[in-house]
Write a sequence for this structure.
């Protein structure tokens, strides 16, 4: 289904219009059906009249940056937090609720649920190959201009890293960085996505014991967070600097990074990470006593 068909059908259902009601006085009902199945592109005159009845501009149908309303707004908000916390148990529980609902979903919402399912399959059921194949198939059919494409590509990159497909990971990382260069980082969804990609890369460098490069990547991203006045991923980035700097920094400097991360976790209510930081700091105190 093309973008015109998807947006046309979504807007009609959102307004509660039947195909016959929408077509009345403008065109045949069968033409509406063909438009929504992607089998017919109406003339500019007819499309203009239909857009007026649908209460949108013509640009709505062809501009990928204009989003349709989502019936997954609450789920997306909750799942975003659960993904950051790596809380896949609760994520699976909420996913099953949404998947069982009969609510009308846009194409992007359906892709969002498919993306979440692949994450659950990978981490909860250890279906690594299946999850990777599914995401590879998804990205091959998606527009690179959409936010969901960036999210799926980033997850696929992480999967590559975790199964040892380093060349594939690095190729995807380069692609993601080039795509984000064209995005407006003053928009929160793009800013957070960009920070996630760079955090993941710093984490990847740590896994390869490239500690100097990991520190540089993390510090640059920390500066970006401060410049954009966001705390998003700031605590994990500080921890990367602390962990990677154990060979180069004295114990007090390392401790300072952990303490700063701890305070952020307290402010922004991240209990799981807070427990890990407290455990490390207690271990550090015991070693010094």
């Amino acid at each position: 289904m093309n973008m015109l068909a998807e947006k046309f059908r979504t807007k009609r259902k959102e307004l509660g219009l039947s195909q016959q009601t929408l077509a009345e006085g403008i065109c045949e009902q069968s033409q509406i059906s063909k438009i929504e199945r992607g089998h017919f592109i109406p003339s500019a005159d007819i499309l203009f009249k239909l857009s007026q009845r649908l209460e949108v501009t013509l640009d709505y149908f062809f501009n990928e940056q204009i989003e349709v309303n989502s019936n997954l707004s609450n789920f997306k908000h909750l799942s975003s937090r659960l993904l950051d916390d790596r809380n896949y148990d609760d994520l699976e529980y909420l996913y099953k609720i949404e998947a069982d609902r009969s609510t009308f979903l846009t194409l992007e919402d359906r892709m969002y649920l498919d993306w979440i399912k692949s994450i659950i399959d990978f981490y909860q059921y250890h279906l690594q190959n299946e999850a990777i194949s599914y995401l590879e198939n998804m990205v091959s059919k998606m527009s690179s201009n959409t936010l969901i494409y960036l999210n799926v590509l980033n997850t696929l990159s992480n999967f590559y890293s975790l199964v040892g497909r380093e060349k594939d990971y690095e190729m995807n990382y380069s692609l993601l960085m080039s795509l984000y260069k064209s995005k407006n980082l003053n928009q929160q969804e793009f800013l957070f996505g960009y920070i996630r990609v760079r955090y993941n890369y710093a984490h990847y460098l740590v896994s390869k014991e490239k500690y100097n490069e990991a520190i540089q990547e993390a510090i640059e991203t920390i500066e970006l967070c401060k410049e954009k006045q966001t705390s998003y991923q700031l605590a994990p980035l500080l921890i990367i600097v602390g962990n990677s700097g154990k060979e180069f920094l004295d114990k007090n400097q390392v401790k300072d990074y952990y303490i700063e991360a701890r305070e952020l976790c307290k402010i922004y209510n991240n209990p799981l990470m807070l427990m890990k930081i407290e455990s490390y700091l207690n271990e550090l105190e015991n070693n010094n006593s």
Notes: Residues 188-207 form the longest helix (20 residues).
